[in-house]
Amino acid sequence: MGITIFLWSVVLFTGLLFGSFLFTTAIRLESGKSLLTPSHCDHCFKKVGVIGLIPIIGYLFYKGRCRHCGKEVSKLYPLTELVNALFVLLIFYKTGVSSIFIQQFVLWEVLFLIALLDFRTHLIFPQPVVVGFLFQITWLTLVDPILLRDALIGLFLGAGIFHFISYFYQLIRNRQGLGEGDATLLGLFGLFWGWQVLMPVIFYGAFTGIIGGGLLLLVKRRKLDSEIPFAPWLILGGFLVWYFPALPFLNLF
Question: 116 phi and psi, to 5 degrees?
């Protein structure tokens, strides 16, 4: 019992810590700042102290404000930490203590960063894509070479599907509906889990996008034809497909 509680505590803290790291990374990639710069306040630019670096605790300890200038710290910091911790706990619950946990942890953290960036900027940044590509290729080559062929087929087929969808949408509507980054993201899904997951991921990505994206548009009081970032919903749909292999309609693909 003691070891189990300790393991879950470590996994929880890891999720919180990486959530903080990924949100900071997203902000720096978005602004073009170096990833090696020490953590600092977004207002007065003074360094964050040791306590401030501790996920959730630092935010609560300083009551959501910078200890130097007193300006409010974005609530997105603790929110991102908590959401990422939940995802990491779910991954650990599914995989347990194994090498698969390490692989899936890295892959989903890469996708979580992509989702953060797309949600904030409507862009798919190349840096996390390259990290995910290199990691998975290396992993498959060294650990699971038998899966490498299906992964490469998934990479090229996944990217190709969205390119064709985008092309026909633009032809019919005379406007761009899906960006190049969305095609790249689907290619990553094919690389990470094989070509077999592509259609289910598209289906559930569209399903979550219609519901979640529609609710966001209503909350923000925007027109229904307004542009919404698709990557977060595609990634959420992909997570549902990976986590619940017995989801309805999966046997149709």
Answer: -60, -50
